[in-house]
Amino acid sequence: MRNKQELIRIEPLETKHHCGILEIVERLPEWFDETARTKSVPTDLRHQLGYVAVSNHRVVGFVTLYVTEGRLHIGWLGVEKELQRQGLGSRLLGAAESKALQMDIDQLATYTLGDSVTYQPYEVTRNFYWKHGFKVYKRSRTDNPGCPEEIWISKQVKP
Fold this sequence. Notes:
Blueprint: E1 9-12, H1 18-26, H2 34-45, E2 49-55, E3 58-68, E4 71-79, H3 88-102, E5 107-113, H4 120-131, E6 135-141, E7 149-156
Parallel strand pairs: 4-5
Antiparallel strand pairs: 1-2, 2-3, 3-4, 5-7, 6-7
Helix pairs in contact: 1-2
């Protein structure tokens, strides 16, 4: 018998996946606030590339990507709650790293809620990135009370 991970395919993001991604975002309000759910993610999906994790023709995880400042940036990353902590986020991150190499880009980057802010869901997020070798390259204060500090993190991508 195959395990759950073997039944989940990673495939390139296509327009047909948008509804499934938005359903995941809707079910993860701890990570995706109202603006992200209603404006940012729907808009970004139309302009970013990425990958989806698909199980039984249903999107169960995703990562979106865009290039800026010489780095391949993760725009959004999400995995269905019941599949978190089972390696699916790592597989999506691996697909992003492979894409960076295909594009001849040597850094994968993103930004997230700063570690000066105590909020358990983002402690999990930061720990995920630390585990995968990301390091802080910039910190910034914001005027957003929900996110008073952002950290910009990146990692070297190697073949």
